[in-house]
Specification:
Layout (H helix, E strand, L loop, with lengths): L1 E5 L4 H12 L4 E5 L14 E4 L5 H11 L1 E6 L6 H6 L1 H21 L4 E7 L22 H19 L3 E7 L1 E3 L17 H9 L6 E4 L11 E2 L1 E3 H16 L5 E5 L5 E2 H12 L5 E4 L8 E2 L4 H7 L8 H19 L1
Parallel strand pairs: 1-2, 1-4, 2-3, 4-5, 5-6, 6-11, 7-10, 8-13, 9-14
Antiparallel strand pairs: 9-12
Helix pairs in contact: 1-7, 2-4, 4-5, 6-8, 6-10, 8-10
The structure holds nicotinamide-adenine-dinucleotide and galactose-uridine-5'-diphosphate.
């Protein structure tokens, strides 16, 4: 009996593998390494290189390893790219997930956990969202993920499988033990870009838009430490295993920070007053998106341990430094 982690060579999936392996679980990673790295997969997991949308291949894995649960991280994740290349997102997010779910149902998989996103909400105003807030994704990325949520609802109504959808807010930070982190060199995420700029890997960074209707004119996001996010996955897996119902949960702290606040925090943590130019808005960005995270706390008993922007940035910065020495 093993847990299948798709995208386990990527940023968030590699932390799930650590959590499961630390708990003594048998883990199989399925990843095509399009953005992930085989060195990011913990040595205690078994690795199968392939595509999560390859039904026959996934069916073979389910049989070979006796897979009862799938935690599905594999996908394409860059919001602005989804605006210029939507079919990539409807392909690698929606269609790939559809095939993976088909393989799961055919192979008798019992539980399915899916990485969804705050981007399913779209523009929401300044108040934190709850799971019942109307969904109105602003980007093909958000829509490609929402379609997967819908597929899971329909499939779970028709077949003996339960699911958990986790809508991640902005994931950041790294394993406190420096075993994994965000390793994609050309990542577009704010905290990663700011840390790279502080370390001199980029000459400067840009602040995308200063004319939003937010307190300081820059976009507001709810940054969640990757280790806390993964703890929610582990609790969700337990919930489903003990017969808990399918559920959809926001993963967030309920605290928003603006782009300027994040840039200032990275300057403080690094001690480098790096260059951050004010530029135009980036396509597909909502002004503000935060959530209370009340449902995940109540249903799963989730208690965040790293809900502090300084700590998140410190861990992200430490990982970035670690990558520099690693790549030397
Ligand atoms: N990073 C965030 O802030 C964030 C926020 C919300 C949701 N998410 C979701 O979390 C998941 C993981 O994101 P991440 O930040 O770790 O990204 P990532 O790019 O680091 O990881 C994705 C992994 O999936 C693999 N992959 C992609 N397509 C595949 C396919 N068809 N078959 C097999 N493997 C494939 C990649 O090689 C990579 O290892 C994604 O589904 C993403 O949409 C991320
Ligand atoms: O160099 C940069 C990078 C980002 N930003 C700004 O910082 C904010 C956060 O941007 P990120 O790219 O870090 O994150 P997003 O909010 O765009 O998206 C992230 O979180 C979403 C959920 O909120 C999605 O799930 C998505 O996968 C994930 O990349 C945005 O306002 C963006 O415009 C900058 O100003 N400069």
């Amino acid at each position: 009996m093993a847990v299948l982690v798709t995208g386990g060579a990527g940023y968030i999936g590699s932390h799930m593998v650590l959590n499961l392996a630390d708990a003594g679980e048998d883990v199989v990673v399925l990843d095509n390494l399009v953005t992930g790295f085989d060195w990011a997969i913990d040595g205690r997991a078994r690795f199968e290189q392939g595509d999560a949308g390859d039904v026959a291949f996934v069916r073979g894995l389910i049989e070979k390893y006796g897979i009862n649960e799938i935690v599905h991280f594999a996908g394409s994740i860059v919001v602005p790219e989804s605006v210029t290349n939507p079919l990539k997102y409807y392909g690698n997010n929606t269609a790939t997930s559809r095939n993976l779910i088909e393989a799961a149902v055919a192979g008798g998989v019992k539980h399915f956990i899916f990485s969804s996103t705050a981007a399913v909400y779209g523009m929401t105003g300044l108040a934190p969202v709850i799971e019942e807030t109307p969904l109105n994704p602003m980007s093909p990325y958000g829509r490609s993920k929402l379609m997967t949520e819908w597929m899971l609802q329909d499939v779970a109504a028709a077949h003996p499988i339960t699911y958990g959808v986790l809508r991640y807010f902005n994931v950041a930070g790294a394993d406190p033990g420096k075993r994994s982190g965000q390793s994609t060199p050309l990542a577009t995420h704010l905290i990663k870009v700011a840390c790279q700029t502080a370390l001199g890997q980029r000459e400067k960074m840009d602040i995308f838009g200063t004319d939003y209707e937010t307190p300081d004119g820059t976009c507001v996001r709810d940054y969640i430490h990757v280790t806390d996010l993964i703890a929610a996955h582990a609790l969700l897996l337990k919930h489903l295993r003990r017969g808990g119902e399918s559920t959809t949960l926001n993963c967030a702290y309920g605290q928003g920070y603006s782009v300027r606040q994040v840039v200032d925090t990275v300057r403080q943590v690094s001690g480098v007053n790096f260059r951050a130019d004010e530029g135009p808005r980036r396509a597909g960005d909502p002004a503000s998106i935060t959530a209370t995270g009340e449902k995940v706390r109540k249903l799963l008993g989730w208690v965040p341990e790293h809900d502090d922007l300084n700590e998140i940035v410190q861990h992200a910065y430490d990982w970035e430094r670690h990558l520099m020495t690693r790549n030397r």
